[in-house]
Amino acid sequence: MIDIKNLYKAFGEIKVLKGIDVSIAEKEVVVIIGPSGSGKSTLLRCINYLEEPTAGEIVVDKIPLNNESNINKVREEVGMVFQRFNLFPHMTVLENILLAPMKVRKLSKDAARADALALLEKVGLSDKAQAYPAQLSGGQQQRVAIARALAMKPKIMLFDEPTSALDPEMVNEVLEVMKKLAKEGMTMVVVTHEMGFAREVGDRVLFVDDGKIVEQAAPAVIFEHPHEERTKLFLSKVL
Amino acid sequence: MDFDFALVVSSLPLLLEGAFVTIQITAISVSLGICIGLFAGIARISHFWALRALAAVYVDFIRGTPLLVQIFLMYFALPVITGLRIDPFVAAITACSVNSGAYVAEIFRAGIQSIDEGQMEAGRSLGMSWSQTMRYVIVPQAFKRVIPPLGNEFIALLKDSSLVSVIGFEELTRRGQLIIARTYGSLEIWFSVAVLYLIMTLTISRFVAYLERRYKTDDRH
Questions:
Q1: Structurally, what CATH architecture does the domain formed by A2-236 represent?
Q2: Prediction ipTM score
Q3: Is the pLDDT confidence value at B221 over 60?
């Protein structure tokens, strides 16, 4: 589903990704962990080209990310959830969800609305359709953001630290929605510090440090029997 | 010192006509200026360098030269090139809108750049193009933020429109001059002209304050 070969990314002099090779299968849930500044968010953001790689090759759903029209095609297939939600504050929850399906998929308002309401129900926010983002809690906003991304019927969902900006009591409501998605067979790539989630939901965990994938394995293996010293050191700090 | 109130009263209809013309030039120029400014402001941050350069030259030229000189260029210099006489009204409107557009462009550019980058990223990640995201997500939010500086620009332009009196266009200031030429009532007429400008600018600033309150919906995240 996603093939990344020899990916490099530098911001000016600072090299953030130093040769990443990874393939992600359909319906796989891959969790990326690692210290801050390790490049894990950058790696995720390269998948839908929010960051332009310095070198390397990315193919998503057989579409190579090598020109503007392909990039837009890939973005239509890949949903993204951000750490800071990035809801559109001047629109209601419903309008947030309707916008892209209407403008990009050219759905009629009625068709888009039916989908949107079904998605709001799925994330447990049917009663908030007419609310503005600022009237919602962080957890509710993040669930709306997930519904907004799902409205494009993506084949892949990317999550960039989706619970890091939330108060602790709101983390679970967001994780529950993500678990539901994983169970339904969504292909997911999740950057997170929630090790419990990684262990429970992840099919594979990538440990990224200093711009490279240091180690990757099934969660049980990586959490119980990590091979690399750096992985052990990192896990000893977060577990 | 004698202040001839009768002169003020008798001149008032002519002055009010002038004030009305001032409002007309300002309103038309501000509207055109907002259109020009929106495009120029977006061009300033476009990823096409040619557009960016063009917009930068426009903004620099307009902001770096006096409006009075721009009016002269429009009214006296341009006809030399084109060979066509230009109507004072057209010259006045064109000079004022083009001038205002440059200032409005900077206001919009700043307003757009003040919107969190995550908004553009969210739009793009949903598959919307840069221009779709600009149009539906960024510009509507920027609009609210630029209401106060746009109000200032509106007031500045209303006052600066007095400069078009130099090409003989009969707005408020020019009317004042003409009445004084006939009646020698400098004190009364300039005083009345000032009061009329003040009434107009105060009205605009009240209106802008009202808009600001009305659109002050929450845009916290």
A1: 3-Layer(aba) Sandwich (3.40)
A2: 0.91
A3: no
